[in-house]
User: What shape does this take?
Amino acid sequence: MISPALVKYSVETIDWTPAGVVMIDQTRLPRETVYVTCRSYVEVADAIRTMIIRGAPAIGVAAAMGVAIGALQARDLEAEMPAICETLAKTRPTAVNLFWAIDRMRKLYESLRGQPLDAIRGRLVREAQQIKLEDIAINRAIGANGAPLVPDGKTVLTHCNAGALATAGFGTALGVIRAALEAGKKIDVFADETRPFLQGARLTAWELQQDGIETTLITDNMAGHFLKSGRIGCVVVGADRIAANGDVANKIGTYSVAVLAKENNIPFYVAAPISTLDLALVSGDQIPIEERSVAEVTHVQGVHVAPDGIRVANPAFDVTPNRYVTAIVTERGVARAPFEESLRALTGK
Assistant: This one.
């Protein structure tokens, strides 16, 4: 396993402390850097639901820590554990890492039944901390596996935020970019703004700027123009859930970028940990898509920009069919079509 000490990035997304679960408030970036402390599992659940913390791996870590803090505070852990897990599981429906982390914590608890309560609580806390450390190491491995795919001397286009802010550290898609730069490749980044929540404009651009990585912010509807220009060498994005056939759910707008990349013969890579795979789903048609508040569309940073009473649709994710995916980069290796075979080979299932 890669030592977390090797990781170099300039933001701490989430941490376990004696005071509670501390996380950077991503709704307030980039205007101000504020950390909030969640002192109960209910507060952790609220932070996930309200996007104080977001990104599939990051909310998995947060959920694990939420279970741990709930276990510390429960008067009757046996009776309260189901409610703790259920409350956290109901926060957001699409990112499978959330459910993976809760299930891991639940199974550990079940294996510890009969032991002294303090021992159980301590073990759950250590497991949540371990999930964070593993995530950082996994992202490093994803970066190492993906870096050779990035063309030297070209621009990398990314959509949404799949960096240190979306994980416990280093990032998935941005981890590939960071690893390519560490390998000496001369690349720069184009970041889609990612309407309506502006994760690219607010988070990716800020995060890469903090690390001194050359970055250009573009609006979502500029992607086709630049993909046609010859400047873009590849597209790298993250994922919230990947079906057994390689269909990928990611932030809304990803599908459009993937279609444009294929039209212009540009590789489209997805960087995600094994925990993002949901091999129980035959295809992306079965992935639940979160519908978020209409205010995210009618308002920009609190400013009303749409007519009163207008009907709004706001799906938070879309599904990119596997035919548009060049490869899926994981910590265990790179999967290519046919994904039904390559993904199962990586998982050993």
Summary: Confidence is low (pLDDT under 50) at residues 1-7. The first strand starts at residue 14 and ends at 17. The domain at 4-140 is CATH 1.20.120.420 (Four Helix Bundle (Hemerythrin (Met), subunit A)). The two ends are 22 Å apart (CA to CA).
